[in-house]
Amino acid sequence: MLLRRVIEHVKAQNWTAVALDFLIVVVGVFIGIQVSNWNAARGERAKEYGYLLRLHEDLQQSIETIDRTIGLLDRQAAGQTLFLDALAECAVPADAGAEIEYAISTLGYINAPIFSSRTYDELTSSGSFVVIENEDIKTGLSDVVRRVRHLNQAVENVYRITEHHRFTVEEHVLFSDIKAYDEYGSMGSVEYDIEELCKNRKTASAVSAIRLQTVDRLQSYRALAALYRKLPPLIEKEVAARWGRAIDASSTTGPGAAE
């Protein structure tokens, strides 16, 4: 209908009407583009909101995991120190037996750091990382992933470094009554003669070498945990500033709730 009207105006040489018709077309196209852009931006905002909630959840899980790993390493390092003291004195203090057994059972075993990366992996594999507008959040995530990859590689090196040291100790102990201590692993009772162990200088050297690696990993994991903990407050601040929402269990109803 508009085209027919334009033709009629041209035939009548009504150039003012032709100009008005042209203006109507241009304005209509412009409004259509703006509406399309607005809908796309609205969709991107909703998608970003959902990603931020999921990243926050992943980070909380990562913090819980790394804290547990740090706790185990802390216990291992303390037990290794008790073991070295016992070797130096050729005697086991009455209240240190259980911790020394734990130290022997876990000598050289260090869990690799875990980052719950399901959302990060989805963002990067789908090319959606640009959806996250906050550069500090994106930089922080990249730093975490880079550090985790580095530490995972380092764990393999630790196993290679400590393997023969662990064998030095295990040649003189007997493991029995193997039981799971939680859903992640198991340990057994350790039979050993502290007087025989302390006679061999290599035993103390092996334990001290393993303790060095344990303490080194402990410090590295504490630094990683600090990186983890920097990100949730950034995400919480971003969500509060742009969507006026606080992140909690009730806010995970999905991105459609935030427009």
Which short descriptors sum up this protein?
259 residues; mainly alpha; two-stranded antiparallel sheet; 7 helices; 2 strands; 72% helix; 7% strand; rod-shaped; disordered C terminus
3D architecture notes:
There is one protein chain. With 259 residues, the chain is mainly alpha-helical. The chain has one domain (2-257). It contains seven helices and two strands; from the N terminus they run αααααββαα. It has helices at 2-11, 15-89, 97-105, 118-125, 135-170, 194-199, 201-243, and strands at residues 173-182, 185-192. The chain has a two-stranded antiparallel ribbon with strand order 1-2. β1 and β2 (185-192) form a beta hairpin. α1 runs antiparallel to α2 (15-89), α2 crosses α4 and α5 (135-170) runs antiparallel to α7. The model is unreliable at 249-259 (pLDDT under 50).
Total number of distinct structural domains: 1
Major sheet: 2 strands, antiparallel
Unreliable stretches = 249-259
Main structural class: mainly alpha
**Average pLDDT figure:** 82
* Alpha-carbon Rg, integer: 32 Å
**Major sheet: arrangement of strands:** 1-2
The N- and C-terminal alpha carbons lie at a distance of 37 Å
Assign a percent range to the helix content. Answer: over 70%
Tell me the total number of β-strands: 2
